[in-house]
Specification:
This protein has 287 residues and is of the alpha/beta class. The protein contains eleven helices and ten strands. InterPro entries: HAD-like_SerB, HAD-like_sf, HAD_sf, PSP.
């Protein structure tokens, strides 16, 4: 396997020495140049539980993330990058911020957090409960959230530019709302989006979602359908998510990335980005 160490800053000599002590039988000299951009690649590494525990300890100490990937894997081996929106592509949970405009952010956020940790098993029920609390809110709150609160996660735009330049298609698939995904699609030149539609009548939210709710099963289906549309196999998809409702689409992919994710997601993902930005995806692979 290739061991890729991803730093948030260039590596220092003591940090490189720590890595060498961890893998004394592996020659890192040819890869030291990568240290200047915060990445070190070490070939021929055997993944063991002991090594991974040591990497977790060093990662927490130095704010590193790491990945163990098959040697020779390239980004262009993949055809699709699919990603969650809330707390993944963007820093906020849109439903929580909308709820802030009717004084219910704490209540809605508690439901969101429990759902993302997997403590509420029925995503449909959790979304229905949260949206119901928004009944009667002026729809203008959606625009205020988009303009005033929506921010991209670190490295999000660079990551998208990088994968698009290499010919990969992009899919934004969200348990959030079309109000936001439809605005992000042209802004980020995304190929496709899938999300929930809030019902609005006379300029007010009705507290209902129209049509099929985009839950874990629908997310996974959206990834498979997008793969079919572009003539790719699911193992040619990279999926990025943070919550338990992302697990099914992550399991369907050839590579899954847990971004600032809940523990249940980190435990099941191929790679966890706890410190680095989304653009670290571009540093994972052989040139």
């Amino acid at each position: 396997m290739n061991l890729v160490i991803l730093g948030t800053t260039p590596f220092t000599p003591p940090q490189l020495a720590a890595l060498r002590s961890l893998l004394p039988d592996h020659d890192m000299s040819v890869d030291d140049a990568l240290a200047h951009i915060g990445s070190v690649r070490i070939a021929g590494v055997t993944a063991t539980q002991t090594l991974q525990a040591q990497l977790e300890t060093l990662g927490a100490q130095h704010r590193w993330d790491y990945a163990l990937l098959p040697e020779g894997r390239r980004l262009t081996d993949f055809r699709l990058v699919a990603m969650d929106m809330d707390s993944t592509l963007i820093t906020i949970e849109c439903v929580d911020e909308i709820a802030d405009y009717c004084g219910l952010k704490a209540e809605v956020s508690a439901i969101t957090e429990a759902a993302m940790r997997g403590e509420i098993k029925d995503f449909n029920e959790s979304l229905t409960r949260r949206v119901a609390l928004l009944k009667g809110l002026d729809a203008g709150a959606l625009e205020r959230v988009y303009e005033d609160r929506l921010r991209f996660s670190p490295g999000a735009e660079s990551m998208l530019l990088g994968v698009q330049a290499r010919g990969l298609k992009t899919l934004l698939v969200s348990g959030g709302f079309t109000y936001f995904t439809e605005r992000l699609k042209p802004r980020l030149k995304l190929d496709a989006t899938r999300a929930n539609t809030l019902e609005i009548v006379d300029g007010k939210l009705t507290g209902r979602v129209l049509g099929e709710i985009v839950n874990a099963e629908v997310k996974a289906r959206a990834v498979r359908e997008m793969c079919e549309q572009i003539g790719a196999a699911p193992h040619q998809a990279i999926v990025i998510g943070d919550g338990s409702n992302d697990l099914q689409m992550m399991a369907a992919a050839g590579l899954s990335i847990a971004f600032r994710a809940k523990p249940v997601v980190r435990a099941q993902a191929s790679v966890a980005f706890n410190h680095v930005g989304l653009d670290a995806l571009l540093r994972l692979f052989d040139a």
